[in-house]
Design a protein that fits this description.
With about 210 residues, the chain is α/β, with parallel strands linked by helices. About 55% of the residues lie in helices and about 10% in strands. The chain is built from 10 helices and 5 strands, in the order βαβαβαβαβαααααα. Strands 2-1-3-5-4 form a 5-stranded parallel β-sheet, with helices on both faces. Helix 1 packs parallel to helix 5 and helix 4 runs parallel beside helix 5.
Length: about 210
């Protein structure tokens, strides 16, 4: 599984720690991690809305299979990400949230409140979240006897999302170009995205946005 880490501006000082812990756990389960920042040493300006839009771009282009994202509270990115087509983002504040999200909701993104409870030992708390998430069998149900009901609920949610949202390319065309450029015009986006994107229309559109600012 390919996993993207996306944290927004206010949490950029924690990117190195989050990435280190995420890679430690992901490697154990043979997952590949890509860091989309925001990182301290590279210029990028991605707020919580931008992080959610970026999650939508990556999922809808099949660049990654799963998103680990978050902001100070975790709420803003979650709301924006869920406004994107094909993104099902859960709020995960602790290992219990992670386990239940995997068992019941089985989405493709989680948003973590990186600004809460940050202190001594925080890396162990994050490790427990990632460990619980990756070791839990997705769609296994909780309680187990509700597995079929919860599967039916996920299918209905997926149907509702499909009929109520427009395509990702349509969203990008209506987004302010300066705002969009801030999200995608950085080294770590360009290095990874254009190598793995499977959506030619979105790739071409974003390349034109980047070229226009160079």
């Amino acid at each position: 599984m390919k996993i993207a880490l996306i944290n927004e501006n206010s949490q950029k000082n924690k990117n190195e720690l989050i990435l280190k812990v995420l890679k430690k756990v992901a490697n154990k389960y043979h997952h590949e991690v890509f860091n989309f920042g925001v990182v301290e040493e590279k210029k990028a300006n991605i707020d919580y809305v931008g992080a959610g839009v970026l999650a939508g771009i990556l999922i809808n282009c099949n660049v990654v299979d799963f998103i680990i994202t978050g902001c100070s509270t975790g709420q803003g990115v979650m709301l924006t990400a869920n406004a994107m087509p094909n993104v099902f983002c859960g709020f995960v504040a602790d290992p219990v949230d992670a386990r239940l999200f995997a068992k019941i909701n089985a989405g493709n993104a989680i948003s973590i409140p990186f600004g809460k409870n940050f202190g001594v030992g925080y890396e162990y708390f994050l490790e427990d979240i990632f460990e619980t998430l990756f070791k839990t069998e997705f769609e296994s149900g909780y309680p187990s006897h509700r597995k079929e009901i919860q599967c039916s609920q996920r299918e209905m949610l997926n149907h509702i999302k499909k009929v109520s949202q427009v395509d990702m390319i349509d969203i990008l065309e209506f987004i302010d170009k300066d705002f969009l450029n801030e999200i995608i015009h950085n080294d770590y986006f360009e290095e990874i995205f254009f190598q793995y994107s499977q959506n030619d229309a979105i790739s071409e559109y974003l390349k034109n946005i980047i070229d226009a600012w160079e």
